[in-house]
Design brief:
It is a single chain. The C terminus is likely disordered. A hairpin with a 6-residue loop joins strand 1 and strand 2. The two termini are 67 Å apart. This protein folds into two domains: 283 residues, P-loop containing nucleotide triphosphate hydrolases (Rossmann fold), CATH 3.40.50; 86 residues. The chain is α/β, with parallel strands linked by helices and 509 residues long. Helices cover 40% and strands 12% of the residues.
């Protein structure tokens, strides 16, 4: 073994040669692919604990609910013992890893939040499944909020801002462009759908601080952050949007470090095909930019998926370390995928790569890693190491105990709702209402008691003759008075009984 820190992935079955991933090349990203049930999760766990042992922080999503076991030592298992014997390993040391558990819904770990402003309109548009026109209105709303100094922290802030923009569209149009009321309505409806799914809990404060997923314990081991993603997978857009958001935050906020001895953080993106499904050109550009440049921030990204073709070609070309588990070739489409996967490896004259991909057993893989010059090594057929931590989830009691003892207990548990766009717009509306002159109250009709009614002067006897002009004026006055009287009466009755006496306009809140 050299002085260069490495992760032991496994050994070749024939000559038991070590196959190791070099830490200085670990931030050149990687791919773990293979059909369901072929051992991808075990490979992920071996890599994660290997990085953590060398002081590298790890973030990974637990899609299937079986990764919490990284916190406890491995238990006796006949299959594990058989694999260790086959690999000739006699110094296997079961041990757990320092782990922190997260859950957007706050049920199986610390609540994990961000603000609307931090997520931004591009990722929020994907989350809400907006079309191009609706995305334009959303971008406009964010711009107006910035110009007005209004914080967008949670969904009620965004709703209030959309309502205000719609109400003042005529004033804003000359500066920001046309604001479609239909698009505003569509965005508001999608926000209601998001809220109904429970994903509204993702937005608010305290927001996640990046240093809390880049920690070490007192022994210098990297902390493994595990995101409970089983519930998230009910709406894959929420899962992929969060993961992409976190990648983007790391890219935008971490300093440049160039080539370093070992990564600061390794980020595992399980079910990666969901990220690329129906991604808009703007979003694809963002993904490719982050993957291409984030390695200079000391972050390695490892995509986990069933088929290499699930990942876009531009991103696939950035993934230098490859672990390919078995693929099944039952259909012409499957055979094409196997052929494409084989072509991504550097050939080894001892191995028929295309045939081997369909012959691999569970826990066996084809592996090619980057050497210290950054070149892919020839593909090797490898028996993957068993992890030193527990395979499968922790018991419910052990899990609750780990969460309660977490160094972050109490930091994120209580949501904070400080003054932001909703409160500020509400205050503005109240000030406008207070400054407006009060409406004139209608003069009530006076009803006199019969005995107190003023006495009218006695009318003169006889009736004087009216002139033609006077008669016409009185006739017109009676006609007008009668018409107006009917209108006033209808208005009063309509107001009392809720009839067609006019509709009142609702305010912003």
């Amino acid at each position: 073994m050299t002085d260069t820190p490495t992760v032991l992935l496994g050994k070749t079955p024939d000559d038991l040669k070590d196959v190791r991933l070099n830490f200085p090349m670990a931030n050149r990203h990687g791919l773990i692919s293979g059909a369901t049930g072929t051992g991808k999760t075990v490979t992920l766990q071996v890599l994660a604990e290997g990085f953590a042992r060398q002081g590298v922080s790890v973030f990974m999503a637990d899609v299937k609910g079986d990764l919490s076991g990284v916190a406890d030592p491995a238990k006796a298992n006949p299959k594990v013992e058989e694999r260790l014997k086959k690999l000739g390993i006699g110094n296997f040391q079961p041990r757990g890893n320092p782990a922190v558990f997260w859950d957007i819904f706050g049920e199986k770990g610390h609540p994990l939040r961000t603000t609307i402003s931090e997520l931004g309109p591009l990722l929020l548009g994907r989350l809400l499944n907006l079309n191009e026109t609706q995305e334009g209105v959303l971008f406009l709303t964010f711009k107006v909020a910035d110009d007005q100094g209004l914080l967008l922290l949670d969904l009620k802030d965004l709703r209030a801002m959309l309502a205000w923009v719609s109400e003042h569209s005529d004033e804003l149009q000359s500066t920001y462009g046309n604001i479609s009321a239909a698009s505003v309505g569509a965005i508001q409806r999608q926000l209601l759908v998001l809220e109904k799914s429970g994903a509204d809990r993702f937005f608010g404060e305290p927001a996640l601080r990046l240093e809390h997923i880049m920690q070490k314990d007192f022994s210098g081991n990297g902390v493994i952050s595990v995101l409970e993603a089983g519930h998230l997978m009910q709406d894959p857009r929420v899962y992929t949007t969060f993961m992409l958001y976190l990648m983007s935050e790391l890219f935008e906020n971490l300093p440049e470090v160039g080539d370093i001895e070992r990564p600061k953080l390794v980020f595992f993106f399980d079910e990666a095909h969901l990220l690329f499904n129906a991604a808009s050109p703007a979003l694809m550009e963002k993904i490719e930019q982050v993957v291409r440049l984030i390695r200079s921030k000391g972050v390695g990204i490892y995509f986990v998926t069933q088929n290499p073709l699930d990942v876009s070609e531009a991103v696939l070309g950035q993934l230098g370390n490859r672990v390919q588990h078995a693929l099944r070739a039952f259909t012409p489409k499957d055979q094409k995928a196997v052929r494409a996967a084989a072509e991504t490896f550097r050939p080894n004259p001892k191995i028929d790569t295309e045939a081997a991909i369909t012959e691999l057993g569970v826990g066996e893989a084809l592996v090619s890693v980057l050497d210290m010059e950054g070149r892919p090594t020839p593909v090797e057929r490898v028996l993957i190491m068993p992890p030193e931590s527990q395979l499968g989830p922790l018991t419910a009691e052990t899990f609750q105990e780990r969460v309660a003892r977490s160094p972050l207990a109490g930091v994120y548990d209580q949501a904070v709702d400080r003054e932001s766009a909703y409160e500020m717009l509400k205050k503005k509306q109240e000030e406008v209402l207070q400054q407006a002159p009060p409406p004139k109250a209608p003069q009530p009709e006076t009803f006199w008691p019969k005995e107190a009614a003023p006495k009218a002067p006695p009318a003169p006897r006889g009736r004087p003759r009216e002139g033609i002009g006077e008669a016409m004026a009185k006739s017109a006055a009676r006609s007008i008075g009668s018409s107006m009287g009917r209108q006033v009466l209808r208005g009063i009755l309509g107001s009392i009984f809720g009839g067609g006496g006019g509709r009142s306009r609702g305010g912003l809140f």
